[in-house]
Amino acid sequence: MKRWFDYQNHVCIVFEKLGSSLFDFLKENDFQPFSVDQVRCFGRQLLESVAYIHSLNLIHTDLKPENILLVSSDYKEVVDYRVHKHASNQPNPTRRAPRSSRIKLIDFGGTTYDGECSFLVVSTRHYRAPEVILAGSGWSYPCDIWSIACILLELCSGKVLFQTRDDLEHLAMMERVIGPIPSYMIRKSKGQALKYFIQERKLNWPDRYTSRDSIRAVLRIRGLRDLVMNHADKSSRSLLDLLQQMFCYDPSKRITAKEALQHPFLQVPLEE
Description:
The chain is of the alpha+beta class. It has helices spanning 22-28, 36-55, 130-134, 142-157, 167-178, 183-188, 212-220, 224-229, 236-246, 257-260; strands at residues 3-7, 10-14, 58-59, 68-70, 75-79, 94-98, 103-105, 112-113, 197-198, 202-203.
């Protein structure tokens, strides 16, 4: 924050001028994914930011590409070797790449102190952790880590991972990507979440209310290994290992931001 002033009984806050959000950059680039090196750079900075706010006992609760801004919107055109040319006389396909991978995390309007979590539901749906949906043991710092995992995969693929409309469909998509929800977590579920399961053992999907469009949407999703291998090239094994630890259903076993920063996938110098 640079300064603030009052204008006609409105408090106006002046911040530094930054570039477009990662979501807007993807959108303006026809949702072509970032390179793995850029995703690595984004991921490290994002985790550094989150590790810092977690050290202050704060939980962001709304991590998503819209809330991550590039420091500069300047870009360059680069050849996209991942796109196969259909004809030899066609020019090489190109995509936009940021000239700088420096980012800043914004929007702390929903940020809360751990232990003062008064909201039952947090996070934009696509980036919402399973413990928030299941409402069993509550949510805390690990819900931010789940969101970051969703973001990293989205930046690698150019597509939202969990493009979903309701809780049951969301849980079904999670099981397609990651595997079955542990039974002990199901047994901890409370309230409305209990109706999503059969005898507290198995996800009741599809149920009699599930539409054909919803079934098709879930069945189109591939497993985490396939998703990563399809987009991460030489870094796929390292990125897969990190995401598996971030996508742990049990929040008590999910990797922390501080631990994730020590992961081999992120052990490269940041771009100047």
